[in-house]
Predict the structure.
Amino acid sequence: KFGAFDTQVLANYEDNIITSPNCDFIPEPFCFKDDCIMPLCDGRFGLVDCFQWPQLHAEQYIWSACIPWQAVYRDDPIWSILWWNMSRSPDKFILEQGSAFEVGRVHKSKFQQLEKVHRCLDERAQKWLKENPEYKGPLKLQEWVQCCSWALIHLERLAFTFHDTVLVVTLFQCLALDVFGMLEWETTPITPPSSDFYLAINHWMGTFTTDFEVCQHLFNACIPVWLVWKESSIPSDMNVHKRIEVTPPTDIVTEPEEFNVGQVLQFQNVQYHGGYYRHMYTRCGPQKGIEQFASLFVEEKGLASTSTLTNATQHDTTSSASSVLRTQWSNSRQTPCKYSL
């Protein structure tokens, strides 16, 4: 049978070889160079956004690999709103009556859709937390759900400019996708392989790694994974099922945002390499603007965890087999895997 270091597909990309033991395609990587991390005109972060395209593995954000692809839920009556691009729907922005400024709120129908997503995620999260009362692992599910609630409260109670509203809506969508990914990580059962090819769960985003051990664990957990090698490191006895070309992204906005007079919410202009810091920064709220619009990643408030999987307390006996396998990794690292080709 194929193992984690054999490969179903192999592609040459620049000076590297990329393989996957459990996928039939290889997405083009955008995670090995320093990139400017700033919201684009749709409020997202373009090709370096883990909510839109696979990024470099970081153990502190292990659930990111379980964030779903948009295409899977494009027509879903509940979840499709998580990829709604408000920047293309100015008619869904309702100006505040009687205001001397061009500020307003999301149209009631769209806000109700966002509320429904929050209710569904909250119900699923509370159910899982009730079934796993002893869980002390790295996923801060309750805190993330609370952050979703805060974003909705801002949208409901505060009038923003159109561009600021786009940013707040997008932040809510990303928070909700994080919660969705956490629940997928913890609750999705692992199906034993039925053939030599051990296919991953194909509606998950997946992740890149340069670490063989991480690749093995992700392979065992049915997570889509792409391993990046130096050509000189490829073993001569590797089984290769098929050589392919990398798949470029489609439908991802890359046009920068133009700052408009009256905007309140602003992000710092920073550059980060793929991995931990990029994951962290793309989950932060605006650094300038409304002071109470807290950053999601605030360790002292417990809103995110930098604990590695080895520091997680084991689940009780009610935990699913998939949770046990995905959280009890041996020899987990104290820092995210780095690109070290």
Q: What stands out?
A: Residues 7-292 form one domain. Residues 31 and 38 are 15 Å apart (CA to CA). The chain has six helices and nine strands.
